[in-house]
Design goal:
- By secondary structure, the chain is of the alpha+beta class.
- The longest helix has 11 residues.
- Strands 2-3-1-4 form a four-stranded antiparallel β-sheet.
- It is 35% helix and 26% strand.
């Protein structure tokens, strides 16, 4: 029987599974990107459910807010975003929006 001891390094010691799950959609992995979502009041609870209560939120015009989250863009992320229609839009960065 082969036995090997694992070594704990800084990356393993500080890895946050919950944070990783908030960023990744499905099994797609890409480089993390900080995005700004423009979210209506009616969609805010769904965004909070997905990303957690500790997201950075700033007020926008009446009934809207900007939410700053880090995601790994993928077809699954864009599908999740599309379900909201006009009530959640990705505003920034432009290259991710396009």
């Amino acid at each position: 029987l082969f036995r090997s001891s694992a070594t704990k390094n800084e990356q393993i010691a500080t890895f946050d599974v919950g944070q990783y799950e908030q960023r990744i959609f499905g099994m797609y992995k890409d480089d993390p990107v900080k995005v700004r979502l423009h979210v209506s009041a009616e969609a805010m609870s769904s965004v909070i459910d997905r990303f957690g209560k500790d997201v950075d939120i700033t007020p926008a015009e009446e009934g809207w807010a900007n939410v700053y989250v880090t995601v790994m863009p993928s077809p699954v992320f864009f599908g999740w975003l599309a379900q909201f229609g006009c009530t959640v839009t990705l505003d920034y960065p432009r290259d991710t929006r396009q």
